[in-house]
């Protein structure tokens, strides 16, 4: 017996552990880590690092190296001696070039500044995406909680109906009540059973919708924590609309994104104006050559270094004048060693290059004008974003206030319907009212409970929306 109890407890513990119930904060954090839209925005943020790397690279000198090897047959110019010769020889050349832009209208500096602004704008867009996803998760989460609360109302009231069926059956059997009252209660029970099934389906559908939003595929075991979500007194709704709107303009990413777009447009305009300025560049080059071709040199004949040849005659006497000349012969010489030729045949070149823009078909002017228009457009977008945010926050403020009044009214209506239901139940128990009137009173009481639940969670959600506009992070929202 003890062994059976132990096995049951173990299995029950494993089942409870397997059926994890997610809190709202866990859902929001998980969504921010796994949502596809969030991941895409993170990739956009990472791509701005590439843009910044490219901008930094504009400050680094350009360096290139090239080489070539060829074999020539026939009449060709020797790359070392520059003499034409008919033969077959192997030649190689190597070259290194370095270039650096000294000035180009500060466009390199402004490209780097633009890359930093672009990264900031991408971060704002990522933050806005996170806020939107968090709000969407909270809405779906509270919908699950509302559906569960409605199911609890239906189940608890159906228990009362079951008790009434038993009691009415006894009274009918005793001849105190007509059988029609029993049939009325049983019909009410059937309707409530149907409503319970519909409520259970609503819970499953809302859970699946939330699981899909979180990218969770295990729908069967997914569930949420359905306790501890109450209205907290002293909330942000006690602040004025002007205070919330002012805070939203400082904290919300919609305005930050619009401001960043204005900064980007102004930076693009500065870059476009930089094309009016001259571009000054410096360059340096080093090259060398090698060939394995043989060559013929004229050298002094060691066997007969001097030759005597007539160079003219004396006009008066006719005597022949002779002179001594070096006696040279052609000597074939092999190619110098590879390393020696690299040093013997190398050379360098360096200098400055100035490019002054004079006329390029008005393309620079058109680009500047285009960017000026874009600056004005982004300023209008910023103004519109501030107006839209002000309108949205004010609407959210009014919605929160209205939902609070609706919740308070629903609570009062629930109190009234509960008193009416208790009164009707007492009258029904002593036979002073029929089953139909009692069922109608109970139905009104059930609807009042459901309406109170709906008003409660609607107010909680709209309150959380207002807190997000106030700048409270989604993961720090309190319930």
TrEMBL record:
Alphabetical list of InterPro entries matching this protein: OMP_efflux, TolC-like
Family to which the UniProt record says this protein belongs: Belongs to the outer membrane factor (OMF) (TC 1.B.17) family.
Subcellular location: Cell outer membrane
Residues making up the signal peptide according to the UniProt record: 1-18
Protein's UniProt keywords contain Lipid metabolism: no
Record key words, sorted: Cell outer membrane, Coiled coil, Membrane, Signal, Transmembrane, Transmembrane beta strand, Transport
Chief location bin: membrane
Protein name, entry field: TolC family protein
Organism whose genome encodes this protein: Winogradskyella maritima
Coiled-coil boundaries: 241-268
Stored Gene3D superfamilies: Outer membrane efflux proteins (OEP)
